[in-house]
Design a protein that fits this description.
two-stranded antiparallel sheet; Pnp Oxidase, Chain A; 7-stranded antiparallel β-sheet; globular; about 180 residues; alpha+beta
């Protein structure tokens, strides 16, 4: 038995991962940033290989993580998760600052940030796992809770893009299964 919904019980934070390619910034929503080691401080993130942000990280070797607050609106998250940077300038409608790596840190709806340098990348089919050393990090809001993926999904009733590592395709029920539920 493979009950994929069991994965919903894992705790993830909702973050914007940003990077740049040439002089253009891009970012996307992820729920797969996690700490690997305390010394040296190291994190990993899984990014879909079709995303422009993946190209940016691969080219620059750097990314930032902006950890979102529970107060972030679904429309704000959707701007980063359901639109491609190939079609829109995602940074046109948001406050940000440039970090020490030259990569933007989102200030809107962010409780903390990380600036990282990629140490290695592991290809995993549809996604790449980027393992990175933390070069700088900071807290922007001590009073607001960070958003977890379960909060986004269960409280805000948010959707997940097909490119996300946490995307689970809903099985369509047959007519007989639907009638059996009645």
């Amino acid at each position: 038995m493979l009950d994929i919904k069991a994965l919903f019980k894992l705790c993830y934070g909702v973050c914007i991962v940003s990077s740049k390619k040439d002089a253009k910034f891009n970012g996307c929503i992820v729920s797969t940033v996690f700490q690997l080691t305390p010394e040296p401080p190291t994190v990993a993130v899984s990014v879909n290989t079709d995303c422009l942000t993946h190209e940016c990280i691969s080219e620059s070797g750097f990314f930032t993580v902006s950890i979102l607050s529970q107060a972030a609106a679904k429309s704000f998250i959707g701007w980063w998760g359901f639109r491609s940077g190939r079609d829109v300038d995602k940074f046109a409608k948001v406050k940000y600052k440039i970090g020490q790596t030259g990569i933007p840190i989102i200030l809107d709806n962010t409780v903390a940030f990380l600036e990282t340098e990629v140490d290695r990348a592991i290809e995993l089919g549809s996604h790449t796992l980027f393992i990175a050393r933390i070069l700088a990090c900071g807290t922007l809001d001590d009073y607001t809770e960070p958003m977890t993926y379960s909060y986004y999904r269960d409280i805000k009733h948010g959707r997940t893009p097909k490119t996300a590592a946490t995307y689970v395709k809903e099985k369509s029920q047959s007519r007989l299964e639907k009638e059996a539920e009645l």
